[in-house]
Amino acid sequence: MGIKIKHTDPTLNSFSTDDLVVNVKGGSLFFKSNTELFRIKGDTLTTTVTESFGDELWYRTGNNLYYTSGSVGIGTTTPNALLEIANPSTEITTLIVGRNTGNPSIKASSEGHLIMDGNGEFAALNYYENQDVILAYGGGKVGINKTNPSTKLDVNGTITATGTNFSSDINLKTNINNIETPLETISKLKGITFDWKDPIIKTDKTLQGTKHGLIAQEVEKILPNLVHTNKTKTVSYIEIIPILIEAIKEQQNQINDLKNKINE
To answer: How far from chain centre, in Å, is Cα 184?
Structure first.
């Protein structure tokens, strides 16, 4: 029986016909037809090749290298997906996609981090498609300009938005009470001016220069439920608004009482 070869290429380690594929791998010569695979190594012919010999072969057409079926494992012999890359070493990066000088990349680090790097250009999600983007759905936190977020979304910098809505439906609330002594509470708070000294924050030009605010440690003594601690302290400024509203109302009542006494 003869085999007619349609083409040869000395740079390839395999060639194929309509019915037969010949491949050189691991010092062995593999022959694969539509139904059978056998191997020649040295002077030994194996007619029943098991998976340990590699019963599926890689194929090459031009500059393309492809696998016909099954899964591919790199660093593992039992891949659990079409492509699984296992990294037993903590000293090397697992995967880099599309990384050349000046081009963006997606990289899986040896520490288990998935990194998207614009490298001079922006990195985008759903740049061309009008679809939702879900982050941290299974748990965890999202940090922007920081690696150790303390809340669901932790931003080290300025947030710009055309609008912000906060949940305030009465159906979501319980234990509703009036704010006691709001004017007295507000009078105890001390507003200050300051400059941020964190060198990371100073890279954000919108945070440079004199700012207005409160000292979290001082607020904690007056309104402890508005202060949260995770390495550093934060203040829920938004919760001061209802206290201010009630303080203005209380002050206006005092003004009206004085007016009434003057008019008597």
So the answer is: 45
The two three-digit tokens of residue 179, written as one number:
């704010």
What is the tens place of the pLDDT at every residue in 221-259? 999 999 999 888 999 999 999 999 999 999 999 999 999
- Residue listed under structure tokens 């748990």: 139
Q: What's the CA angle centered on 142, arms 138 and 143, to 5 degrees?
A: 160
Spell out the residues 6+ positions from residue 247 whose beta carbon is closer than 8 angstroms to its own.
182, 183, 185, 186
Which structure tokens are listed for 2? Answer: 């003869």
| Extended beta strands in 83-210, E state | 83-85, 95-97, 105-108, 114-117, 142-144, 153-155, 192-194
Per the prediction, the chain carries an average pLDDT of 76
Cβ–Cβ < 8 Å for 65, 58: yes
User: Residue ranges of the alpha helices (H) in 36-192?
Assistant: 182-188
pLDDT confidence of residue 1: 39
pTM (global) more than 0.85 = no
The closest of 159, 161, 166, 127 to 145, measured between CA atoms, is 159
How many CA atoms lie less than 13 Å away from 129 in the CB half-sphere?
A: 5
